[in-house]
Amino acid sequence: MIALNSFLTDASLQRRPPSPAAEVLVHPAVITARDHARFREAMVDFYPGLWRFLRRMGLPPHRADDVAQAAFLIVLERMPRIMTGSERAFLYATAVRIVHGHRRRAQREVLGADLDRDSSPNPSPEEYAHQKRVREIFDALLESIERESRAVFVRFEVDGLTIPEIATALAISREAATCRLRRARKQFRALLRHVNVA
Questions:
Q1: Radius of gyration over every alpha carbon of the chain, rounded to an integer in angstroms
Q2: Mean pLDDT, to the nearest integer, of 56-84?
Q3: Number of helices (H) and strands (E), helices first, in the chain?
Q4: Separation between Cα atoms, residue 161 and residue 116, nearest integer Å
Q5: What is the Cα–Cα distance from 115 to 113, expressed in whole angstroms?
Q6: 110-143 tens-digit pLDDT
């Protein structure tokens, strides 16, 4: 039997090791040596980025660890059926489904609570208005960025894609993608100086 934690020996992953409670045993006959290598490479390449992506989705650090580990367990189980080169897309889509599933369950549990005594889990009208205002400002800032640079900026900063993935998706060179990202960040910072979100 192979313990999942044996895949986590790489130094780059030691900064945020998954919880030992989530250790799962996988029968060695289920995964080939090639799939084992693909999985290990995916862990090393994608774990830090996935964790940051989950934090941007609003999860606290310990929940980001749990969801990332759960997503990787599913990837390990499905690795023989995942097309080579699609590991990252499958991993991120799986993580998003896990997060949405947790949120749906949390909403159902709230309905069973004593609503007369508990405060609402939903934002107050003031918080909702503030969040809406922030989103509108962010959208307006994005609209102010040059279109070609904006496409790279959104894919990198919002979608969490890497420069090589963006270059492939937009059919441009990596150098062009890097240059556009740098230009978009500069424009975004300049625009942000004149914004008052309060």
A1: 20
A2: 87
A3: 7, 2
A4: 44
A5: 6
A6: 555 555 555 555 667 788 787 778 778 777 877 8
Which amino acid is located at 23 in the chain?
A: E
Q: Break the chain into its structural domains and give their ranges.
A: 2-111, 125-192
Sorted by sequence, the CB contacts under 8 Å of residue 188 that are 6+ apart come out as 141, 145, 153
| Helices assigned H by DSSP within 1-86 | 33-56, 61-78
One-letter amino acid for residue 26 of the chain: V
Angle formed by the axes of helices 125-144 and 174-192, nearest 10°: 130
What whole-number distance in Å separates Cα of residue 78 and Cα of residue 86?
A: 12
Count the Cβ atoms, other than its own, within 10 Å of residue 50: 24
Q: For the domain bounded by 125-192, which CATH number is listed? A: 1.10.10.10
Q: Which of 34, 26, 73, 31 is nearest to 50 (CA)?
A: 73
Q: What is the pLDDT of residues 1-52, one digit of tens each?
A: 333 444 444 333 334 444 333 444 444 446 788 888 888 888 888 888 888 8
